[in-house]
């Protein structure tokens, strides 16, 4: 959000029309809000995550996701980005290492890599 705000202010300083400055600030605010909303949706603060082979389920008070772990999922040093294919839609779910205990995070990384490997073999 800060990035979009700084971009809007810096960019609008070089515009000569007040209307153009307003449009620049308004569009940056809208894009910032949409980005923040996507981030909050894909990076929940709490919830229950159940992983069984390639099937997974995540629930919290605002979000319920069921499906398989896709090939698009990524494993990084301190986070796992899960792309979950559900029956009707797909979702990104980002889990940080600081949010779970170390053993659970290592298990999640292993199962994600195994699920990606299985999906690649099926294709």
TrEMBL record:
Instruction: Provide the alphabetized UniProt keywords.
Output: Signal
Taxonomically, the superkingdom here is Bacteria
Q: Secretion signal: which residues?
A: 1-20
Protein name from the UniProt record: Uncharacterized protein
Q: Which organism is it from?
A: Pseudoalteromonas rhizosphaerae
């Amino acid at each position: 959000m800060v990035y979009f705000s700084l971009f809007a202010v810096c960019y609008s300083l070089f515009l000569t029309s007040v209307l153009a400055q307003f449009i620049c600030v308004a569009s940056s605010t809208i894009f910032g809000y949409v980005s923040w909303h996507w981030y909050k949706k894909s990076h929940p603060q709490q919830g229950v995550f159940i992983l069984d082979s390639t099937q997974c389920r995540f629930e919290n008070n605002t979000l319920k996701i069921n499906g398989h772990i896709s090939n698009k999922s990524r494993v990084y040093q301190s986070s796992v980005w899960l792309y979950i294919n559900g029956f009707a839609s797909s979702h990104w779910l980002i889990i940080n290492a600081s949010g779970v205990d170390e053993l659970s995070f290592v298990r999640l990384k292993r199962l994600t890599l195994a699920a990606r490997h299985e999906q690649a073999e099926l294709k």
